Amino acid sequence: MSQQPCVRTAEGLVEGRRRRYGHAVFRGIPYAQAPVGALRFAAPVPLRPWDGIRQAVDFGPPPPQSVPHAGPPAGSSPAGTDWLTLNVCTPDPGAAGLPVLVWIPGGAYVAADSGDPMYDPAEPASAGLVVVSINYRVGAEGFALLDGAPPNRGFLDQIAALEWVQRNIAAFGGDPGRVTVAGQSAGAGSIAALLTMEPARGLFRRAVTHSVPGWHCTRALAEQAAAALADRLGTAPTAAALSGVDPWRLAGELTALSAGLPGRRESWGRLAQAGIAMCPVVDGEVLSETPWPALAGGRASGTELLVGHTRDEFRLFSVMTGRLGTFTDEDARTALELFAPAPDGAAAYRAAHPRASAEELLETVYSDALFRMPSLQLAEANAAAGGTSFLFELRLGSTAMGGVLGACHSLDVPLAFGTLASPTGKGLLGDRPTPEALAVSQELQQAWIRFATTGAPGWAAYRPGERLTRVLEGESKTMPYPEESSRRIWEGHAPAPFDLVRPGPPTGDSGAEATVSL
To answer: For residue range 305-331, what is the model confidence (pLDDT) as tens digits?
Structure first.
């Protein structure tokens, strides 16, 4: 008989592998049928049970990826089409009642891969957590608004994965009543949406959200984006018409559409400036409204929430696009015009930062609008809804690339997972992380573990008046929220969905220089 760990799920037996740490790891377990053929662009369909033992050794294939990752040539589907899979790492399948951490990877809603080495679960599993990571549909497969298809299919996939956890995690040693969902960037934005969605209620107890993005589309804009994508293929924006297009070709066309967004800025506004043509849509069906007013208005219940952002969120994109050091006064004016809260936000930013360079002002506005203020306001809205919020800001600067990255977007992920030696970890922190980076990594790991276990990360909750925030750096401290000037500028201005500036065709606008290109 095999000496490898074997677990019976509600759908059938799965056999994983024992890692050198002693953990049992199960990879590529399907939680719904593959969304291809007749099921493409459909809501996730329950699995059929299988006979015998299913090998759960390799990660499932990633869903088709768009910006920022280029897809493979048309006609190819790397490693298969079974995109709706998840992975489980457990300290002991024979245990009972262990806390569970479910990781939802991010990537601007157009890319996500649970097999990324940055998400290696060894460290949290060593601390006694059962760690689950999931794949879900992204880009056009998950979020294009198409006639004949449910909207926000990526969110429906995430709900199906969480339902699988409720059915099966006890067999892996986990407690279905102690599930914490965690994510960064689009993963955090997904969790913010799940907090307000009726079908997700009762599927998790706590939430961890790093760098929550304020990215949603109105139906009108989402319809235009889907039509523009279909037009590139010479077809209609319907599920029936697009189902015959190779998935990776569709992903590649979305990448190309996103690259051409500067020419649509006069009609698509902030979405065009953000550089990603597809994101969740406020559809009135799956997602009835954005998370901030839903929570603040009492239409969703608060929870135990650990939320944070980095100090220099936008710096990563300045470096990735080669724009660092080149932003102009015109670029800063564009950022203020499109992303500062109306009507007085632009003037307020200039008053708050009178000696800032054009680049410093632009980075502050983009960091606030895209990640910092949505994260802060989620903490505030969750507290208003009766939940308990804990807030942090990562101030530890990267030493990679001569330190130009600062405390940038995504730096917190390898720190939280303890995966500093992963390719992304090395790219962000260098081959030899500093003692300060090691200390912050240890603190953030412990915060996750404490929070998933007890509901408290180790510092005081964020409350109106005090606004206590954990600032993570060489010598971390708890203090009033450090970005107070930005908080005041954005007070009363929850992130609004991207919308059409005016109807009509693209104008050929020449604003490519300042495009965010996330």
So the answer is: 999 999 999 999 999 989 999 999 999
